[in-house]
Amino acid sequence: MKTNRLLLVEDEADIADLVKLNLESEGYKVIAAKDGLQALQRMKEENFDLVIMDVMLPHVDGITVTENIRLTNTKVPILFLSARNNTQDRILGLKKGGDDYLTKPFNLEELLLRVQKLLSRSKVSSENDVALHEYNFGDNYVNFDSFEARGNAGTFILTKIESLLLKLLIENRGQVVSRERILQTVWGYKVYPSTRTIDNFILAFRKYFEKNVKKPVYFHSMRGVGYKFTEK
């Protein structure tokens, strides 16, 4: 049975130790980060099933950390812990990408129940997704788990954003994917990049994978509509 890996972001050592101890007693693997910068670094290096995020953190606050996480990861559940308990703060946390919001001081049993519920919901969502781990098209290949790809210049590594965008287009091959859907699925964030930014990713894909960049077979920009991946 898989052990769920949790990232606990909390700068108050007493609270962090208490929460970590109780989560571990429930069978979770808990990795702790004491500030926002450590949290961002952990998220780049490792995969987590859930994040417990304090709002008031040194260096980078929890809201900003969450915004950054959501640029590349729209699925990991994020539970905010905060001493700020007014309605506006709760709404802000949820708007910026949080899935739940628990105020301090909190009941440990309630925290554990909320963690369990978020993990259960995430598991159901993942099981309903059609898993696409790798894909071949023409002489090209991409592995969406390792970000490894093979194209015109041989083997190379995609960035996370490139991998997410490429996966979305391939999953919807033959269909036009709107800019709005790309922004929500890939960036998952309210401050969106421009259409030109997406165009630049499509141009990069053509350089990676198309035999003739000026006459693309796979990657198409549909002006004013969206973008499409097609097979030969």
Please mark out the parts with pLDDT under 50 across 5 or more consecutive residues, or reply none.
none
What is the 3D form? elongated
Helix count equals 8
Number of domains as seen in the coordinates = 2
CATH superfamily heading of the largest domain: Response regulator
Class of the largest domain, according to the CATH hierarchy? Alpha Beta
The average pLDDT is 88
Look up the CATH topology of the largest domain: Rossmann fold
Number of DSSP strand runs = 12
Helix content: 40-55%
Structural class: alpha/beta
**Pattern of helices and strands:** EHEHEHEHEHEEEEHEHHEE
Distance between the termini: 41 Å
Strand content: 15-25%
- What characterizes the major β-sheet? 5 strands, parallel
The whole-angstrom Rg is 20 Å
Question: What's the architecture of the largest domain in CATH terms?
Answer: 3-Layer(aba) Sandwich
Give the strand line-up of the largest sheet: 2-1-3-4-5
